[in-house]
Design goal:
The complex is a heterodimer of chains A (316) and B (315). Chain A is mainly α and 316 residues long. Chain A has a domain of 215 residues. Helix content of chain A is 74%, strand content 1%. Chain A has a two-stranded antiparallel ribbon. In chain A, a hairpin with a 2-residue loop joins β1 and β2. In chain A, α3 runs antiparallel to α11 and α9 packs across α11. The longest helix of chain A is centred in the N-terminal third of the chain and has 27 residues. Chain A is globular and about 60 Å long. With 315 residues, chain B is an all-alpha fold. Chain B has one domain. The radius of gyration of chain B is 19 Å and the shape is globular. The two termini of chain B are 13 Å apart. The N terminus of chain B is likely disordered. Classes of the chains: A mainly alpha (316), B mainly alpha (315). The interface between A and B is large, with 52 and 51 residues.
């Protein structure tokens, strides 16, 4: 028993996978074993979108206290519209559309950083103010717009390989790359060092401001890509496409073992936490919970999980 | 990184006056664009929703005083509205009990955040779903009716001074006294400035955090009651914009995210500026509805940039 406890304390992300399995077992126990596989497949697909923005948010949060990107939902909304407009329902323009979405996200990330740096606005307010402006751009830009993705792109986003969503497979590769970026490159080590102590990192010769620029830009870029992929998966763009990804992106990072105090990140945990959250919502759906009950329970469970997994004993 | 602010000199004064200056600027702009708006009736109309915004800003101010942030205050206000539009009308005792209980929940959240040293952003983001869900459960479809006395209270038309302005002065005076005029208020602010020192001086940080969150819950509940008194019927999503408005109001009013540096009077002026700028001014300036949200963001950025400039010049 102590060995199990040790395993969890050494690998905080294991807890989130454990939770995901538990929730999945509870759902298939309820349905009597029916549809367990399908449930996993669709959970994988939905978790993919949380992972993509979760990774971006994780890098930002790791930069240190106060660093968080609140503009992700607005970013996703705008970028999904940009992607669909550029693709113009034409499969040959998919790559261009993806580039455009990534570019719009990248620009948003850079704008966020400029607000933080040039105007010395705290990241929370900077990304929040930016999100107001992005929302308006999205509303104004989205009027009477082509919101459907090209058929081929939509089919690709919904495609499966051996029962696994293609997007999820791609995102697993992406997560591995992100883990290497975090742990094995100068940039990743710089992000961790900045989060642990910005002054010390600066004195040690870490290009702190360049690292913060890249991190915010990368988070924005991932948000933009996520917008395009979401629009393809749900076969349509909309301004509130990203609304649930604010809580989700922060929650999966923190539940997955990333420290809100900065300087400590965990990539496998993001998959575990995303699967846990998606399966949790699936479970509440299978139990036939009303939207109100679902909201109350998912909110309460997030608070509960953070209390167990995310906190440090008091006494700073 | 950041030098501590000097206690004397021109810069702090400029920073204190910035909220008043922004408010004056917005008023001047409105007076130029539409002179008829500067009248008893004009203010009553323009500041229609100012009272709930001011109270929500005060709720957020208490949380920010302790270096935390409440991202759930908007959905909490929605929840209070739904309870007020249903039980508070049909069964006042039960309704009042639920509202009291929800303020206790706020205090307990403060305790939890302190006890486990949790990030308040994540906890309150989670709670925003809880309040929103509860609001949907209480009032699945928009409707219900506000208690008669609340509507009468909010429809109050005092002699000469428009009610929203009178209310703003009262709220500013009360919160200024609470935080700036009492010794425990100084302790509350000090907990945001240097928690370790406050603890070493023998104060319970747990109790301080609970007090700050309970005050946030109380003012959140008052904001919800004021809102339902104006709108007369409830809707689970009615408060969704208030979270951000409240944060913006505190910051516009000269508050800082860390350090327990807040200004209740400034925050009330910040909330007034926002309620004028976010609707009336933009309408008079004929900003298309699509761009009104952006204009709010831009106003926030401009004021904060002005403040950064003042802060930089002091060095």
């Amino acid at each position: 028993m102590t060995r199990v406890a040790d395993m969890f304390s050494e690998r905080p992300w294991a807890l989130s996978f454990f939770g995901a399995v538990l929730v999945w077992l509870a759902s298939i126990a309820f349905t009597g074993g029916m549809g367990g596989g399908d449930m996993l497949t669709s959970a994988m697909a939905l978790a993919t979108f949380m992972v993509i923005v979760g990774v971006g948010q994780m890098f930002v949060i790791t930069l240190g206290p106060g660093n968080v990107d609140l503009s992700l939902p607005a970013n996703i909304g705008l970028s999904s519209a940009v992607a669909m407009k550029v693709m113009n329902n034409d499969d040959s323009l998919v790559a261009v559309g993806l580039l455009a979405a990534a570019g719009s996200g990248f620009a948003i990330g850079i704008a966020n950083y400029l607000l933080i740096r040039a105007l010395r606005i705290p990241p929370i307010i900077a990304t929040l103010s930016a999100s107001f402006i992005i929302q308006s751009i999205a509303i104004s830009y989205g009027r009477g717009l082509q919101i459907k993705p090209p058929d081929g792109f939509a089919d690709f986003a919904n495609a499966q390989l051996l029962g696994l969503p293609v997007l999820a497979l791609g995102t697993i590769l992406f997560t591995i790359a992100a883990a290497i970026l975090l742990q094995r490159t100068l940039f990743g080590r710089g992000v961790l060092a900045t989060g642990q102590n910005m002054n010390a990192a600066h004195l040690a010769g870490v290009p702190v401001e360049r690292i913060r620029t890249i991190t915010y830009a990368m988070c924005g870029l991932l948000g933009g890509l996520n917008g395009a992929l979401l629009a393809a998966y749900f076969r349509g763009a909309s301004n509130d496409l990203g609304s649930e990804y604010l809580l989700a992106s922060i929650a999966v990072a923190v539940i997955g073992g990333t420290s809100v105090a900065g300087g400590k990140a965990n990539l496998p945990g993001i998959w575990g936490a995303s699967l846990f959250l998606v399966l949790l919502l699936t479970m509440l759906n299978t139990f036939g919970a009303s939207p109100g009950v679902r909201m109350v329970l998912s909110g309460a469970i997030i608070v509960g999980v953070i209390t167990i997994a995310g906190g440090r004993p008091s006494g700073r | 990184m950041e030098a501590s602010a000097p206690r004397f000199g021109v810069a702090p004064l400029a920073r204190t006056l910035l909220p008043a200056f922004s408010l004056a600027l917005v008023l001047a702009a409105i007076a130029t664009l539409n002179p008829f708006a500067i009248s008893y009736m004009g203010f009553n109309l323009m500041l229609n929703l100012a009272i709930p915004i001011i109270l929500a800003t005060m709720a957020q101010l208490f949380v920010i005083t302790g270096n935390d942030l409440d991202l759930s205050i908007g959905s909490f206000i929605g929840f209070v509205c739904c309870v007020a539009a249903t039980w508070l009308t049909t069964d006042p005792l039960l309704g009042a009990g639920i509202l009291l209980g929800s303020i206790i929940v706020y205090a307990l959240l403060g305790a939890l955040i302190h006890w486990r040293n949790l990030p308040s952003i994540v906890v309150t983001l989670g709670m925003s779903f809880v309040w929103q869900g509860l609001a949907v459960l209480v009032l699945p479809d928009p409707g219900g009716a506000a208690p008669e006395w609340l509507m009468t209270l909010m429809g109050f038309q005092p002699y000469f001074i428009p009610f929203p302005i009178l209310a703003a002065i009262v709220v500013a005076a009360v919160t200024h006294f609470l935080l700036m005029g009492t010794s425990y208020g100084a302790i509350l602010r000090a907990s945001g400035g240097n928690a370790a020192a406050v603890a070493r001086a023998g104060w319970s940080l747990l109790r301080i955090k609970m007090a700050l969150f309970a005050l946030a819950g109380l003012f959140g509940a008052l904001s919800g009651l004021a809102l339902i008194g104006i709108t007369t019927s409830g809707d689970a999503n009615i408060g969704s914009g208030y979270t951000l408005l409240a944060i913006a109001g505190v910051i516009l009013g000269g508050g800082e995210f860390v350090g327990g540096r807040v200004s209740p009077i400034g925050a009330v002026m910040g909330a007034l500026t926002l309620s004028l700028a976010s609707s009336s001014l933009l309408t008079f300036m004929q900003v298309p509805p699509d761009w009104q949200v952006a204009a709010n963001g831009a106003i926030l950025i401009i004021v904060l940039a002005a403040r950064a400039l003042i802060n930089r010049r002091k060095a």
